[in-house]
Design goal:
The protein has 248 residues and is of the alpha/beta class. The chain contains 12 helices and 9 strands. It has 2 domains: 152 residues, TPP-binding domain (Rossmann fold, 3-Layer(aba) Sandwich), CATH 3.40.50.1220; 88 residues, 2-Layer Sandwich (SIR2/SIRT2 'Small Domain'). The chain has a 6-stranded parallel β-sheet with strand order 3-2-1-7-8-9, with helices on both faces. A 3-stranded antiparallel β-sheet has the order 5-4-6, with no helix packed on it. The relative contact order is 0.20. Keywords: Metal-binding, NAD, Transferase, Zinc. This is protein acetyllysine N-acetyltransferase.
C-alpha cells in the first residue's frame, strides 16, 4: 500500500476532518512562497505594523509593494489540491480549512467562506483599521497608481490596510479561537504545504494529536513535526490529494 492509499483509508475512516494549509498548496498554483529564496521577504525589509500606522511613507511603500507584486496573485487559479479539499467540504467530511495563506484560493475553489479560517487574513481586499469597513482593491489601486492617493475609509476616514496580518500585528482573536475549537473537535488533522515553523499557528497539529486525532503531513520538505505524525508524505499536494480523495 502506497502513501496515497494509506491517506485514502485514513480519510474514509475519519468522521470529522480539518485541513491546515500553508504556502505549499498555493505554490502549486504559481504563487511564490514569501520565505523562499527570491521571495518577497528576502527582497524587501518587512514593514512592521507600528511603522505602517505611524508613517505615511511606510503606508505608501506598503501599497507600492502590494500592487507591484499583485499580478501573480491575481492570475493564480485553484489547483487540484484546493479542489480536493473543496470536494471533502462539499461531502460534509471536512468541517473546516485552517489556512496560513492570504490568497483566497480556497474560497475560489468552491469552499464556503464560513468553512475557511484565515489566520493571517486575506490580501484580496482591504479593511479600515478603525471601523472594520471592507474596501475593494480596484478603486484603491486605480487612485494609488494614477495619483499616488493613499486610501482612507469612506465611512470614518480611518487608515485602510490590506486585510492581512502584518509583522508585529496581533493575531486575530476570533479566527484563532475558531481554529482551536475545530482542532479539538476533529479526528483527522491534515497539514498541507506548511513548514510548521510559524507559531502560534504551528501549534495546532500538536493540539489535535494530543487530543487523540490522527495527524498527517503532506509537504515537499521535511518539517520539525514529521516524527510526531501518523503519516508523512513528501510529495506534491495536488496529485496526492487527488488520488487519496478520488477527484481530478
Amino acid at each position: 500500500m502506497d502513501d496515497a492509499e494509506r491517506l485514502r483509508e485514513m480519510v474514509h475512516a475519519a468522521q470529522r476532518i480539518v485541513a491546515f494549509t500553508g504556502a505549499g498548496i498555493s505554490t502549486e498554483s504559481g504563487i511564490p512562497d514569501f520565505r523562499s529564496p527570491g521571495g518577497i521577504w528576502t527582497r524587501y525589509k518587512p514593514i512592521y505594523f507600528d511603522d505602517f500606522m505611524a508613517s505615511e511613507e511606510m503606508r505608501r511603500e506598503s501599497w507600492h509593494r502590494k500592487f507591484a507584486t499583485d499580478e501573480t496573485m491575481l492570475k493564480a487559479e485553484p489547483n487540484a489540491g484546493h479542489r480536493a479539499l473543496a470536494k471533502l467540504v462539499e461531502l460534509g467530511r471536512m468541517s473546516s480549512i485552517i489556512t496560513q495563506n492570504v490568497d483566497g484560493l480556497h474560497q475560489r475553489s468552491g469552499v464556503p467562506d464560513s468553512k475557511v479560517i484565515e489566520l493571517h487574513g486575506n490580501t484580496t481586499y482591504a479593511t479600515c483599521l478603525d471601523c472594520g469597513h471592507r474596501h475593494e482593491l480596484a478603486p484603491i489601486r486605480r487612485a494609488f497608481l494614477e495619483k499616488g492617493t493613499l486610501p482612507i475609509c469612506e465611512k470614518c476616514e480611518g487608515i485602510v490596510k490590506t486585510a492581512t496580518i502584518s509583522f508585529g500585528q496581533a493575531m486575530p482573536e476570533v479566527p484563532m479561537l475558531r481554529a482551536q475549537e475545530e482542532t479539538l473537535a476533529c479526528d483527522l488533522f491534515i497539514v498541507l504545504g506548511s513548514s510548521l515553523v510559524v507559531y502560534p499557528a504551528a501549534g495546532f497539529p500538536q493540539m489535535a494529536r494530543r487530543n487523540g486525532a490522527k495527524f498527517v503531513i503532506v509537504n515537499r520538505e521535511p518539517t520539525d513535526q514529521d516524527a510526531d505524525a501518523d503519516l508523512v508524505i513528501h510529495k506534491e499536494i495536488g496529485p496526492t490529494l487527488s488520488r487519496a480523495i478520488g477527484v481530478n
